Amino acid sequence: MKSSTLRQLAPVSAFYVLVLATPTLLSYDYYYLSILTMAGIIAIIVMGLNLLLGFAGQISLGHAALFGISAYTTAVMTATYGFPLAVGMLSGVGLTAVVALVVGMPVLKLKGYYLAMATLGFGLIVYIFFNEAIALTGGPSGFVGIPQLHFGGFTFDSELSYFFLVWTTVTVVLLISLNLIHSRIGRALMALHASDKAAQSMGINVARYKLFIFVLSAIFAGIAGVLYAHYLSFVAPSSFGFHFSVQLITMVVLGGMASLWGGIAGTVFLTAMPEFLRAYENMEVIIYGLILILCMMYLPQGMAGGVSKLVALVRRRLGRA
Amino acid sequence: MDLGTFLQFLAAGLTVGSTYGLAALGFTIIFNTTGIINFAQGEFVMLGGLLAVVFMHWLDPGLPAAVFLAVLTTTLVGLVMERLTIRPVQHTSVINLIIVTIGVSITIRGLMMLLWGKDTYVLPAFSGTTPIPILGATIAPQSFWILGITLLVLAGMRYFFSRTIFGRAMLACSFEPKAARLMGISVERMVMASFMLSAFVGAVGGAILTPLTMTSYDVGVLLGLKGFAACILGGLGNPFGAAAGGLLLGVLEAFGAGLISSAYKDAIAFVVILAILLWRPSGLFGAPDTERV
């Protein structure tokens, strides 16, 4: 295949057909569609985090904060100051990217535990800011009255319209990400995951690639943030705390680090699970904790790794028979 | 600022800083024997305080016994954590170890939330609440308990690591596990002991602070992060430097809250820590370490 063509077009197209068919398959049940819309928004962040964590091997416990910065920015720009939607959304994503750039430049020099703690500290500072800057953010009780999206004459006012908007975005982000990891950049990222020093000595500019992927994952979180704010028309600090950062990590880990498809599956599974488990609310934290521990012990490649192992096993059995 | 106010801030800082210091000590004990940063360290601190409250309500054995039981139970939690979650994955990558210890951390937190709910609990002070006036400042009696017990624990650790055969064996593992093994030291046992010891000092820190600050299932994240921040200030490889870092962080926070803004008290601490981390990644008092390829 020529390097200029889009790769992975066939599976992604098949995926999009499934997306288009989903409302019919669910017989337009708006309850299920709303769950999937929320899962799609989170899946956009998870794909970015997967590029960072699964492919480049750099952990971030601050992605909930990046998501929140974007959501609050578009909320304040459009609802408080009355800017047009496009300006609000662009400044949401833009500010998130700038914050990631400014924070990432020094912080990404740190490794392993130090990087984890530094991003955790960053996330907490932003979280404290959301709570304390009451004049700007509305404080702990949240920010209400964020306008609905509209482009030209079309207003996104139904569950169905947001479902298609979100999952079309998911598909585009997926296509971009898949092409990225099959490119020179993707190979560089996997090289620096294996060894910083070895990658450096092969002529890979490690610092620049780390920063690039960190900012890209922040942009994905930013896109998710503006969709989230305008979809719910309400944001509160509690959605952007440490717990959500851990949930994002859990989705990457359960789906499979370094598997974008697995990440989407993990996100949908974990977002939908509470709706099907009664008394789940109190168990949620424990379930996330156990998933993290058990995956690392028995399924370090997550569901994606588990499925491919299973397929290999079945093939071997069939081959022997 | 007059002397009274200054002393007031200083006492408040040293009091909270003691718990940060004990949490930091816990981080360094595990780090020195295993090279792991335990993200569940804050939960040990939370367990020390919350379990003391629980034992008070549940068995009503009197305050000293409740605190003792809480510390003992937390020490056992450290043991169980090491056996069930760390030993099976000890040779995996740093990222995986971070994820496992985060998993343990939120499992413990979730379990406590499930059992005792989201309420905030208080523990009675060890010897009344009548403040003691000193040079224009008024200081809670609990502050003296906290400082005294912290110094006692630090002295005990000092003795343990320098004078007892077990402590010296743990120290040997931190220098060179292979050589320690050749000398007949069971590295597995030392790793297990380091988790228990770390849980022990964390729980003591949590139990003595709770009468002043109250507690709930979710205080662990912030306490753990501040304990780690203290390690960064004092140097990760040096237990007593880390404990000193805790006191320094506590004082820094108290003056920040008093002079700048109490709402952003926690943020001030982290901004300073991030700055130090970026400027000197091995801490203020730590020697810069070199990495093997």
Largest sheet of chain A: 2 strands, antiparallel
If you compute it from the alpha carbons, what radius of gyration of chain A comes out, rounded to the nearest whole angstrom? 20 Å
What global shape of chain A is seen? Answer: globular
Radius of gyration of chain B: 19 Å
The most extensive contact between chains is: A-B, 46 and 42 residues
> Count of helices of chain A?
14
Class by SSE composition of chain A: mainly alpha
Q: Helical content of chain A, roughly?
A: over 70%
* Total count of helical runs of at least 4 residues of chain B: 11
**Average pLDDT figure of chain A:** 90
The total of beta strands of chain B comes to 2
| Strand elements of chain A, count | 4
Oligomer: heterodimer
Strand order of the largest sheet of chain A: 1-4
Order of helices and strands of chain A: HHHHHHEEEHHHHEHHHH
How many structural domains of chain A?
A: 1
Written description of the protein model:
Chain A is mainly α and 321 residues long. Chain A has a single domain (9-320), classed as ABC transporter involved in vitamin B12 uptake, BtuC (Orthogonal Bundle). In chain A, 76% of the residues lie in helices and 2% in strands. In chain A, the strands form 2 sheets. Chain A has a two-stranded antiparallel ribbon. In chain A, a hairpin with a 2-residue loop joins strand 2 and strand 3 (154-155). Chain B is mainly α. Chain B has one domain (3-230). Chain B contains 11 helices and 2 strands, in the order H-H-H-H-E-E-H-H-H-H-H-H-H. Chain B has helices at 3-34, 41-58, 63-86, 94-116, 141-163, 165-175, 177-182, 187-213, 220-234, 239-259, 265-279, and strands at 132-134, 137-139. Chain B has a two-stranded antiparallel sheet with strand order 1-2. In chain B, a hairpin with a 2-residue loop joins strand 1 and strand 2. The mean pLDDT of chain B is 87.
